[in-house]
Automatic annotation (TrEMBL):
This is Sulfurtransferase. It comes from Amphritea balenae. It holds the Pfam family Rhodanese. Coiled coil: none annotated. GO terms for molecular function: thiosulfate-cyanide sulfurtransferase activity. Keywords: Repeat, Transferase.
Length: 269
């Protein structure tokens, strides 16, 4: 199956009966039960978080990912389709998590379930149960940035930090669950929903438009991009759309501002 990273509802509809397809719905249980894409399984977004330690929003341990992906039936031949009910960031974080484990056969449903409904494609309400597999996960650190990595590359011109929080958070006017506000020195701000057509039309805007806006901020594909938000939820979407634009060197700071803003020795602008 050769499917793009970002897939339309119509493209997905043509593959719906493919036995190697695994559709993951990251919506709330209530929304899943109200109607989902035929064959989709329900997965709680909380499994994308480590859930323990001082920074519980970091990527799960490899053992946790082994358990997760085995339980949903992932194999090397599986192509994963993912969507959520949060405008796309959770689906983007799932794509990033899969990439971290070396599984690149995955696609993000453009426009989420809204686009499927708009195309008048069928829904079902039954609960689907996956057939477990034995998937062994390992994590490639090239897809992550931690505090030390960021400090080591703060002022290097071949790296840039993309902060996709709101402008008040970026400027330090709004502080959420942190001891200090502001942003990582040198970081540029691109509020995550700017990549979407609108709050009602959740499809990604044309790639050339997003690429031009990022380039105006100095975010170009020749650099290593480090993206983050408050807890690496919103930056799940920025990982997704920069990979969609062809950026090859994208790292996610999964500790995000929840970690950086609570450490005593992290510099802030």
């Amino acid at each position: 199956m050769d499917l793009p990273l970002v897939i339309s509802a119509d493209q997905l509809a043509t593959e719906l009966n493919n036995p190697n397809l695994l559709i993951i719905d990251l919506s709330s249980p209530e929304n899943y039960q109200a109607g989902h894409i035929p064959g989709a399984i329900s997965v709680a977004p909380s499994v994308l978080l480590r859930g323990t330690g001082d920074v519980p929003n970091k990527i799960p341990q490899a053992s946790q990912l082994t358990q997760l992906f085995s339980s949903v039936g992932l194999s090397n031949t599986t192509h994963v389709i993912v969507y959520d009910d949060q405008m796309g960031p959770l689906a983007g974080r799932m794509i990033w998590t899969l990439h971290c484990t070396g599984h690149f056969n995955c696609s993000f449903l453009d426009g989420q379930l809204n686009s499927w409904k708009a195309a008048k494609l069928p829904l079902e309400t039954q609960t689907n149960t996956p057939q477990p597999t034995d998937f062994q996960a390992s994590i490639n650190p090239d897809y992550l940035a931690d505090v030390d990595y960021i400090k080591d590359h703060l002022y290097q011109t071949d790296h840039i930090v993309l902060d996709v929080r709101s402008e008040p958070e970026y400027r330090g006017e709004k502080i959420i669950n942190a001891k200090k506000g502001g942003h990582i020195p040198g970081a540029v701000n691109y509020e995550w929903t700017r990549a979407l057509v609108s709050g009602d039309d959740l499809k990604l805007r044309p790639a050339d438009e997003i690429r031009a806006e990022l380039a105006a901020l100095g975010v170009t594909a020749d650099k290593t991009l480090i993206t983050h938000c408050q807890t690496h939820r919103r930056s799940g979407l920025s990982y997704l759309f920069t990979k969609h634009l062809g950026f090859e060197k994208v790292r996610c700071y999964d500790g995000s501002w929840f970690e950086w803003g609570n450490l005593e020795d992290t510099p802030v602008e």
